[in-house]
Amino acid sequence: MREIIKEPNSLLHQQCQTVVNFEEARQIADELLLVIKSVSKWWNRWLGFAANQIGYSKRIIVLRKSKNEYEILVNPILIEKRFPFPFIETCYSFDVKKYYLVKRYFWTKVKYQNLSGNFCENIIKGPSAIFQEMDHINGIMVSEIGFRLLKFSCPPHQKN
Fold first, then answer.
1. Measuring CA to CA, how many Å separate 34 from each of 27, 40, 74, 86?
2. Whole-model pTM?
């Protein structure tokens, strides 16, 4: 299984290349699925990974749809976005958990190709990892567009 690329790797800051070889895309998608399944937790419904996070500069993302269901989007393009809202995100490409407040959308229309090269359109409703993964394949990290949230800790409980 591929290792998740971490900051400050320059691959995370480069716009990924359009996929033209769908045999290669299937191989990359298989690796992306292994990685996403390895980090999936029952509570993490809004999970995704981009190809550049595992070392490929290709416009391929995987999104978790439900417990054991994933969707592969090749050459995705966000066509329309509606209903912005603030959302807190982190990224597996950070060495240390850092949280950022970002603007995301409750509704979006995405056009993409499937692994056979056929064009598809999908409407995604509710919070989704698609926005962060689109940022990834465009060479943008959440740390570059979000407001960093600091973690506050309480002092340890003292017994009297």
1. 11, 10, 17, 30
2. 0.90
